[in-house]
Specification:
152 residues, mainly alpha, two-stranded antiparallel sheet, 6 helices, 6% strand
Amino acid sequence: MGIFRCEEFCSWLGFNYDGHTNDMPTTEQSINAEYAKIFVASDWHLFKRMAEAQFREAAFLKKKDMHINQVLKLLARNSRKRLLIGIGTELLLKAVYLRNGYCINEPESKGSIAFPFTQEDASRAATSLVAAKTVMLGEMIDHSTLHVNPRG
């Protein structure tokens, strides 16, 4: 076996000698490239189904499902339930926005168009949408136009 110089070995591993990668995609970049999509109104049912799955898992989660010290099982279960409910809520709210004709993908240029907006609004504003980024839960809640009628 030959002797590698450090530069050659680093290059063989996909790194420059200074420790920077040779434009190799990160795991996040690879996943984004594979699953990135501009969502349209007809995709609302996918978000609803995923939200239902999160809520179902939260509803049936038991302490015995937690693989942690016995003393921490209740805390771990409750924390996990809250996470699942939060994820389900975000997915369900995205389903509602999509079903009502709004885009959930972020505009390429922040501030170029105000959320919520439709695909037509984005086209009129000559704004491209980012396939790998959707609007965050907080922004959807802040701009929610849902009204609840109290029962008397």
